[in-house]
Every structure is written in C-alpha cells, then in structure tokens.
Design brief:
2 copies of one chain form a homodimer. Chain A folds into 3 domains: about 150 residues, Rossmann fold; about 160 residues, Dihydrodipicolinate Reductase, domain 2 (2-Layer Sandwich), CATH 3.30.360.10; about 80 residues, ACT domain (Alpha-Beta Plaits), CATH 3.30.70. In chain A, strands 7, 8, 9, 10, 11, 12, 13, 14, 15, 16 and 17 form an 11-stranded mixed sheet that branches. In chain A, strands 3-2-1-4-5-6 form a 6-stranded parallel sheet, sandwiched between helices. By secondary structure, the first copy, chain A, is of the alpha/beta class. In chain A, about 35% of the residues lie in helices and about 25% in strands. Chain A contains 14 helices and 17 strands. In chain A, α1 packs across α12 and α7 packs across α8. Chain A is elongated. The termini of chain A are far apart. Chains A and B meet through α1, α2, α6, β12 and α12 of A and α1, α2, α6, β12 and α12 of B. β12 of chain A pairs antiparallel with β12 of chain B.
C-alpha cells in the first residue's frame, strides 16, 4: 500500500487518547477509504513518564512542540490539548508551516476564530473543527455544506451534556439542583469546578460557533447572552411538566430583519418538540432553514470516543484534501457583518412565578403593571394560597419584548403586594 | 464577479421545480460561498408548453437531452426526472462526457448503483446523491464523511413519510389503515397507487443505499427483506401503546460476524427510543457506530423544497470540486463483498397475537410448541375471552431466530386449538 500520511497530535488527555485508540482500532477501514494509511508521527505530552490508559509507543511521545512543527513529513496537526494559550500559539505555528489543523477547541474558536481562520486561509491549509460542537454529532459539516443552499433562520440546541443530565435527573427524580450536581460530580459527568457548564459558558461557546456558520457573520463568545441553570427549582420543573413542557438549557440563535440574537438560558420546551425528548448526557441541535424546514442532529455531545469520532472524521477529510492538493477548499464563511440585537430587543414568551400577598385585587394590580408595559398575559395558570398571608401566582405571557418584561418586573418588585419574583423562565420552541 | 458555473437540469417536476426556485431564491448566498454564481443553462422537459408553478425563462427549456450533454460549458447535470430507464441513460451519458451528476433517484441507485459509480470513477467526475434518502436530511454525507472513522454497527430509520403519516394517524385517532390511507391520498401525502410506499419498497431502496455506505459492501434493492404496513390493525397499535411501544415502519441494517441483514417491516419501538417520537411525515435515521455511539438525523424526508435543499447542497459541492479540479474526490466506498444473511438467520423479538379456543390447557400446548422450536416467551401479556368459545392470547418473545419462530408458527397454524395467528410484529430498538 501507498506511503502513510503522518499526523502529529497535541495532547493526550481524554480526547487525545480516544483519537489514538480510534486510529488504531479502525486503521484498516480508514486506509481503505483513503487508499493510504494514517500514521501518528508525534504526540505532544507534558510528562513523558506519566502512566496512561493506553499502550502507546514511547518513541512517539515528545515534550517539544518544535519537533512536531519542524517535521516536514507531518502534514496534519490534531490539537486536543485545550485551553486558549499554548493551543492558540501551536495552531498558528502549524498553519504557518503549511500544516492542516484539526481541533476540538471550542473555547479558542469562540474567542479567536477570526484570527485562526484568517491564518488558515493565508497559508492555504485546512482548519477543521467538527468536534468543537456536539462531540460526535455531525453538525458543523452538515450546516456548512449539506445545508449550504438554505438561508438558516434558527439554530436551537441542547449543547451541554452536564446540564442536560442534571435537568433530566431533577425532572425524573424530583431532586434539587445541588443534590443532583453533587451526584454528577461523583459520577464524572460534572467537573470539580462545574461553573463553565452550569452557568452556560460552555454552551455559549458552542452557540457562538454554530451561529457564525449559520448566519455567515462572526459571533464571539462575548456576543452570547447567557444564564445558567443553578436557580431552577424542582417546583418550576413540576409546573413545566404539568403545563406540557420539559425544562432544558437551550442555546438559541435566530436571525430576523432586526439582526442576530444568540442566547443560552433555561427554557420551557413543549413536550411535543423533538428537543424535549433529548435526555441524560445526550445533545441535539435543531436547525431551521428556508428550504429544508426543520431538521435535527442528535447524539453524544462529549466523551472520549464520540469526540474522537468527529476528530478522526476531520483527519480523514484533511488527509483527502492533502492527497488531492485541495487544502483550504472551504475556508471561513463569515462573509457578512450583521448586527447583534441587544437582549432587550429579543421577543419570546415567559413563565413567571410570583409570591404575592393573599388579598383581593392583587392580580388586578399586577395585570395592570404588565398591561402598561405591553406585556400581554396568555394565561394565569395557578393562583393558590401558600399560607394565611401569601399566595403563589403562576403566569404565562404572550410573545413580548424582553425589555418590556424586565421593566415590568422591576416595577413589580417594588410593589407592596409582591413579596417575591420567584422565577422567570423563557418559553421556547412553540410557534414563533 | 467571476464567470458563472452552468447547470443542466433534467426534469421539472416537484423536485426540479424546487431546485429552480431555491437556486433563484438563495443565489446570492450560494454565489458568496462559491465565489462564483451558479446559473441554470438548460432544463429538460417533456412538454415545452405545459403550464407550470414557476416562472422560468422559456429559452432554458428543451425537449432534446443531447442539447444539454453536448454543451461544453455545462459541467453539472442534475437528474430529477426519476425512473430507471431514460434517467439511467442520461446519467451515464453525462458522466461519459465528463460532467458531474447530482441525482435524487433512489430507485436507480438501489438497482444500478455499481454501474453508475463505476462510470463516475472511470470518467473522474462526481456522482452525488444526498437527496436520494431522507429528503432534506443530511445523512449520506455525514455517514460517508463525518462518521468515516467509525465501524458502523447498525442503521435504523423511518425513511418513508407516507407510512409514518398513516401510522401516526392510526395511533392518535384510532382509525383503520384503509380509512387513513384514503385521507392521505386526498391530502396528497399518498400517491394514487400507494403500493411502493405502503408495501415498503420505497423504504427498501433507501435502506439499500444506506447499508451500502454503512458497511462498505454493495446492497441492492433485491437484497432487502420487505413487509408493508397494510396488515396492521388498530388493535395491535393499541396493544403496542399499552405495552410502552410505538408502531413504526422501520428500515434496519445490521452487521455482525454472520454477515449483513437489511430489512424493512413494521416494528414495535420502545417509546423512550428517539425514533418513537418521530411522527407525521417526518423521517429520521438512527446510526450506531463503534466510536460515536448512538446518533440520529431527523427532518422532512420528502417534498419539493426539502429535497431541493439536499440537491442544491450537492450542486454546491460539485461546483466546488469543479473549481478546485478535484472532481471524483470521493468515489464508491463499497470495497468489500460481505455476505447477506438469509432472513431466517435474523434474530429479534416478536409480538404475537393469537386467537385460540377458550379451553383449559391451550396455553400449555402453545408454549410447548414454542419450547420445542427454541422460541422462548418473555411474557404472556394478555389472555382474554372473546366469546364463549374463543380467547385472545398476546405474547412477547425473547430474542429468537426468525426461522425458529416461523417454524413454530407453521405448527401452531395446524394446531386444532389455534383458530388464527392474528398478528406477528417484530420488536426492535431495545437492548440487542
């Protein structure tokens, strides 16, 4: 068989280990597809002597990145070390030396995508990143290529497995957020410091990447509104279920005549919506295009082997482009410079739970405040006495501007009859 | 802007009209992505004067295919005329003249795929067919490229919208097959002659295409076992629901050490399986790979614009390959010649409904027949008297070989205590 195509891997953590395993395990079918075998030439590690989960030829390991970049035979670099410091430097160096890069690094792309894509374009090589969103789920390529004939209207996804696991458990077992979080940590589904997952930062990075591709305009992490799930209560989840909704941490990216909105926050999703059935650590991305209509991509959004599946798919593509002298065939697709809507201009529906004084006329005065701010109520779902002096009021609004709702809530908070604005959760996935 | 890339379209029916509309509607973003506009140079039609749903420049229309093939400026041919006669001839002619071909023609690919792919390879051009399975859903490219690092174990799909619509209606409204079929015809969801859809032929063609890609071996329409939905009763659907299943027409392709199985038949699918929630005319394809695990692709499996979305995605790819002198970059991937299992060797679970004499010892003698044939019963779900002399017996088996079950059923049919074998439906999507 023909000479092998050589690959340098930066990092041998969870994903790196999966990539090494998968290239070994399925090397035969990959070589068959490419007509040439793939061969790992170098693996950059921090510690040469660390005990590892896999058997790997110690001669491949190096602590010196320069050894990899300066090897003229290594044409594909796989960055699976993570972080935005050294990883960025190494990717840029690789691109400059004419090597194609495959990366799973969402943090880096969501912050410095423009610089990285510019470099890949300048040097005529590939920068592929299927693994950066949705783990093993094919979503970047379908969005960038298969759906390229569509004007994308909306991308809506469950793109963080940790929070989906927590919300699924809270829903099924009626347990509190903190209780389930502790269990998720002990099972390895949540990190010791789970902030990035539970506060929506991780999802925001992925949505920045998806929105950039969907709308052809550069969206960074900082453009994404985000709100996490730590304030959600079992009470709200129970109300959601009673009303026919699942509670999910959603990433939503929409374009309309006023611009682009990209936001990550908990939401009520109608049980009949395909995203409502996406449970546990599974991820799914729902895409709406003007021709294709509604489509959805579902699978494991994280983990060693699922992520390796996406990385290896990209390695095969980079290898094919190298064989065909066709590197850099699809570069950055952010051709436009579209405005980002302020969050106040977003229009959606809301679920509200208020604790109020249990006395006559309370609902009327609350409805009055909403009315003045053009917040129209769809229904008063529940109105029940909590004790001799307090009642709970559960409301669902029609579509309203976020700013109007926030203004109304500010006034309500100061109203003597309102004891507490207990919950505000957006309602998504119904008719727009 | 640069010179346009010219496209010849064969056929201006439902899909052809969608393609013309979409190229017009989103021509700006497509040109942006390619750096060159796409331009329709010819459209082959049967009747120049027919009234059509769209405004199309009459100068583009022709009844002479040779005019298209002989135009050296037209480099991409889109075959959306359907059928396996002229379509095959025209595709082969196009490939021979060095033109890339985009087709939505599942009938043709499922019968003559090998010959067509050989021709595209010989002439170094593309033969792209994303629209042939699942309408607008990206599934061919993800399976062939993004998931290329996986050994695919199983592909399971709802790949026919007409039957899914009928089963959804039967389930929700408790109406009979024939009643819903008539309604589907009047709404245009079923054709005047619905045989190909309801008998599973259409799904079998799509499964032949998916299985060929998934397992790297040529599967034709004739290799696919098929059974339609016309014998399903509301009674069985109600039992399924009571037992926690949805009833779907499934296409299933699996590989194990004994070979490949590809089959289309109605099945009970556990309600918690992602395919169970795929309703109405929607399609979904569930793919299981050794690295990626479970993944699913969901969307509209038919219709003018969704199908056009897939066709235009392929046109863009063919145009890009033309620009980059990289046509024929991914050719046929059927490298192997794997054995197809006889249907009798397939192992699955079964739901059985029998009408028996209502007398003591009946269950024992039936269980005895199953036991002799190594058909192990998981549960006797229901045993109820229908009238003074007959009872209904509903059983679910463990995993058994199809041949063993069929042998047992043959013996049962001759047993004096068995009045009728009312239903036999496979149970899929649980633990293998």
């Amino acid at each position: 068989m023909a000479k092998s195509i050589k690959i340098g891997i930066l990092g041998l953590g969870t994903v790196g280990t999966g990539v090494v395993k998968l290239l070994e395990q399925n090397g035969d079918i990959i070589a068959q597809k490419l007509g040439q075998p793939l061969k790992i030439s170098h693996i950059l590690v921090r510690d040469l002597n660390r005990k590892r989960d896999i058997d790997v030829d110690p001669n491949l390991l190096t602590t010196d990145p320069e050894k990899i970049f300066s090897d003229p035979e290594t044409n594909i670099i796989v960055e699976v070390m993570g972080g935005v410091g050294a990883a960025k430097e190494y990717i840029l160096k690789s691109l400059k030396r004419g090597k194609s890069v495959v990366t799973a690094n969402k943090d880096l792309l969501a912050l410095h995508g423009k610089e990285l894509f510019n470099a890949s374009e300048t040097h005529g090589v590939d920068l592929l990143f299927e693994a950066s969103v949705g783990g093993g789920i094919p979503i970047i390529h379908p969005l960038k290529e298969c759906l390229a004939g569509n004007r994308i209207r909306k991308v809506m996804g469950i793109v963080n497995g940790t929070t989906n696991y927590i919300l699924t458990k809270m829903t099924r077992e009626g347990r509190s957020f903190s209780d389930v979080l502790e269990e998720a940590k002990s099972l390895g589904y949540a990190e010791a410091d789970p902030t990035s997952d539970i506060e929506g930062d991780d999802a925001a990075r992925k949505m920045a990447i998806l929105a950039s591709i969907a709308f052809g305009t550069r969206i960074t992490y900082h453009d994404v509104y985000r709100q996490g799930i730590s304030n959600l209560t079992v009470e709200d989840i129970n109300y959601a279920n009673d009303l026919g909704y699942a509670v999910k941490l959603l990433g939503i990216a929409r374009e309309d005549e006023d611009g682009i909105e990209v936001r990550v926050h908990p939401a009520f999703v109608p049980l009949k919506h395909p995203l409502a059935a996406v449970s546990d650590v599974f991820n799914a991305v729902f895409v709406e295009g003007d021709a294709v209509g509604e489509t959805m991509f579902y699978g494991r959004g994280a983990g060693s082997m699922p992520t390796a599946s996406a990385v290896v798919g990209d390695i095969i593509e980079a290898a094919r482009n190298f064989q065909h002298h066709d590197r850099g065939r699809i570069t950055c697709t952010c051709f436009y410079d579209k405005p980002i809507k302020p969050m106040g201009a977003v229009v959606t529906k809301y679920y509200l739970r208020l604790i109020v004084k249990d006395e006559p006329g309370v609902l009327a005065s609350i409805a009055g405040v909403f009315g003045e701010r053009e917040v129209s109520l769809a229904s008063v779902v529940q109105e029940r006495a909590l004790n001799s002096s307090a009642a709970e009021l559960v409301l669902i609004t029609h579509h309203v501007r976020e700013q109007n709702l926030q203004d109304a809530l500010k006034i309500l908070a100061d109203l003597p009859v309102v004891k507490q604005i207990a919950s505000v959760v957006r309602v998504e996935g119904g008719e727009d």
